[in-house]
Design brief:
It is a single chain. The chain folds into 2 domains: about 35-65 and about 345-450, Alpha-Beta Complex (Aspartate Aminotransferase, domain 1); about 70-340, Aspartate Aminotransferase, domain 2. About 45% of the residues lie in helices and about 15% in strands. It has 17 helices and 15 strands. The chain has helices at about 5-15, 25-30, 55-60, 70-80, 95-105, 120-135, 155-160, 165-170, 185-190, 195-215, 240-250, 270-275, 305-310, 325-340, 345-360, 400-410, 430-450; strands spanning about 35-40, 40-45, 50-55, 110-115, 145-150, 180, 220-225, 255-260, 280-285, 295-300, 370-375, 380-385, 410-415, 415, 420-425. The strands form 3 sheets. It has a 7-stranded mixed sheet with strand order 4-10-9-8-7-5-6, sandwiched between helices. Bound molecules: pyridoxal-5'-phosphate (PLP).
Amino acid sequence: MYNYTTDQLQDLDSKHYLHPFTDHKKLADERSRIITRADGIYLWDSDGNRYLDAMAGLWCVNVGYGREEIAEAVNQQIRELPYYNSFFKTAHPPAIELSRLVCSLAPAHLNRVFFTGSGSEANDTVVRMVRFYWSLKGLPDKKLIISRHNAYHGSTVAAASLGGMQTMHAQGGLPIPDIDYIGQPYWYQDGGDLFPEEFGEKVADELEQKILELGVDNVAAFIGEPIQGAGGVIIPPSTYWPRIQSICDKYQILLVADEVICGFGRTGKWFGSDYYEIKPDLMSIAKGLSSGYVPIGGVLVSDEVASVLIEEGGEFNHGFTYSGHPVAAAAAIANLNILRDEGLVDRVDTETAPYIAEKWQQLTSHALVGEARIVGLIGALELVKDKTTRQFFDDRGAVGTLCRDICFDSGLVMRAIEDTMVISPPLCITREEIDELINLVIRCLDQTAKQIQ
Ligand SMILES: *Cc1c(COP(=O)(O)O)cnc(C)c1O
């Protein structure tokens, strides 16, 4: 679309464009791969190379690329009403219809939604809503939010603080006050001699210890991703979420599910909370809400929390210029209609998830793979030095990066989080495409093994 050669694009990129989460000095030597178009589960770069996108962009293109219905909805909405806000007693049809639709898909007790421009803004909104809720209940000291080490909740100041990424906290004086952390349910790394189920209960019990340590009168909420995404697709043992739920119930603190990745079908259910049968008071959403076609996020609010905010709260002094943006809302509506009308979420649950799970498990026979875990269409492979002792490589991250680069050069987009290779393909992926994905993964693992010998 723009009249540049690949070389020119790479030059201009390195001169002007600051990328997210990027070491620009390194990138200047290696240069960017320029992605120019996409269709279904495939991407093409400016040199015409094709890639199978096993990450659905950044965990978000749930319906796959190239859906005309979304393009058409966006086109029509831009022509009819490209922008209006909902600040001063106004609203517009797309934001209203999207609210109705999202609430109809969400767990039954969540019937109100606040829209944002992203998942980070959704989690910023969570911080403010949770604290406002407790102050309205006459408990203004209940403002501590408990999160987990290695959680990812976004990149704004509050969202990065909610997250448990040390590397993010180290830059810019984070976290903000009144956020605390417990361990993550990462059995493969931290489980020691315990069975996964025992370990799940043990790390969940850290929540109770933390609440008692901080004082229940000071604790507002617990936040967690049903499955940690950016942390390395940490799939908790089956005992973990039931125990977390019962601790939140026991001490009456709010449970916040960050569904930015798990929401909209990733696990084979509409939400990760459905998959784990938990009942969150608030749910952050983004990514799959619009399949990434246009940025939009939001917070779903339970009837109980909404009634306090609405009946007692007066004006909530919070909102974004683009809250409920009509074009983003139109894209999200078209996206959710595709997911629902084509039965994509059910298809993941009953057909493609079981199909890929069997093949994924077989990857553990590979010399490099210590564990292969997957739920729905989100999975991980642990590349390790010694499978029998669950020992990681000494220079943690080097093998993962090598494998990721080999994947890219072989036409496969798979992400490395240290030495954990992760996938999160579009939900429209077919059995044949899963076969192709698995074959590519095997080829790349072989090549990685060869290169580190
Ligand atoms: C991506 C992500 C976010 C942040 O969303 P942005 O749209 O990038 O701001 C928050 N939580 C989780 C679990 C995410 O994966």
